């Protein structure tokens, strides 16, 4: 084939693919996170009343949130397993497999019997399904991010890398919206069968997600590594050997991100309904509004990180949440619907989006292509144990300890924000970094795109 024609075709493929792949990553991530988040909402509203009825209400709520944390404990296993396969076999195949695992596990939760029906088997089965949810989303995140980032041209990685990040507020929007609608049912109907609709409906979304992900091609960056036969033999060990500092830096920056999200998306539901005694629809609708802002603002902040740098956008968001935490909980304590919405929209929709949006590209730029899937997934999922999974549990424990007051938890959030800012200070700016693998010189980016367009992943 004429080299100029091949290069022209490859450039066409690359230009078309970056938007298509970013959109596919965004839609797929939205479905995966919807599955994961409906569990958190159900843990706040339902599971203590159906699966832990043998415990006092306050203890039952703590245990329900503990099962929520189990998903985060399982996520690192998914990150290592699918990171290994993603760095060895390819990004695309792992994204399809993780979608199937997540969809099946979520659907099964919707079918589970309650404690009154089968006793201890009910929480055991619930926890088992949650483990598989964690494994699925643990392997999904790194692949979704890399499909977008590794296709994106230099100078646009923050923007395109933020598209799969949109999956978090979009998934939360769907999850909270679903429960907000279902909460309109009479309480008996909601607890009996209404909540199950949120979990059972995921089978339709999973089929859509698998179809979309089957349509995308493998990334040019990984194609180049594959063609040069330079894949890592054991990516996780290579990651720890070659990038230990970057792993720790990424995990430190992740702490305030996961804490902020779960403070508003999960803990706020329990705090407002059980301690401030407002209707659950008030908080859920606030989360829906905040998540809607996030869907719009995450790509915008991603774009700003391309223009002004990852650290400028991320650092501004972290500083803002440190300043807003105490006023935010004061607004929720008023019990006023507009003020509760203001707290959640500012915290979750506007400030959190600035923290979260640049991180996909930032983390991808920390690691070499050979271990990038494992690196991004490990940073996100290992830190998720303390940054995200334990947040509702820590929050409820601190609020209980202080007699229903949120100030100890607010102080905890401020301390974590300052810690993450310090970690960020020592991480080099990377938005101009070249992340394309330096391997065989005859395999150029356009040549890699052409190879990807002809070869099934």
CATH architectural type: Up-down Bundle
**Biggest sheet statistics:** none
Task: Please report which band the strand proportion falls in: under 5%, 5-15%, 15-25%, 25-35%, 35-45% or over 45%.
Answer: under 5%
Radius of gyration: 22 Å
Termini distance? Answer: 22 Å
* Low-confidence segments: 5-10, 438-457
Mean pLDDT: 85
Coarse shape: globular
Task: Work out the helicity level.
Answer: over 70%
Helix-strand pattern: HHHHHHHHHHHHHHHHHHHHH
Q: What's the level 1 CATH class?
A: Mainly Alpha
The CATH topology is given as Growth Hormone, Chain: A
SS class: mainly alpha
Whole-number total of structural domains: 1
Total number of helices: 21
Q: Using DSSP, what is the number of strands?
A: 0
CATH superfamily: MFS general substrate transporter like domains
Structure, described:
With 457 residues, the protein is mainly α. It has a single domain (15-216, 242-432), classed as Growth Hormone, Chain: A. It contains 21 helices and no strands. The chain is globular, with a radius of gyration of 22 Å. The two termini are 22 Å apart. Residues 5-10 and 438-457 have low confidence and may be disordered.
Considering the chains and any ligands shown, give keywords for the structure.
mainly alpha, disordered C terminus, about 450 residues, about 0% strand, single chain, Growth Hormone, Chain: A
Summarize the model shown.
The protein has helices at residues 3-45, 47-50, 57-88, 91-109, 115-118, 121-149, 157-165, 167-182, 187-200, 202-214, 220-227, 235-242, 244-274, 280-308, 310-333, 337-356, 359-364, 372-389, 391-401, 407-425, 445-454. With 457 residues, it is mostly helical.
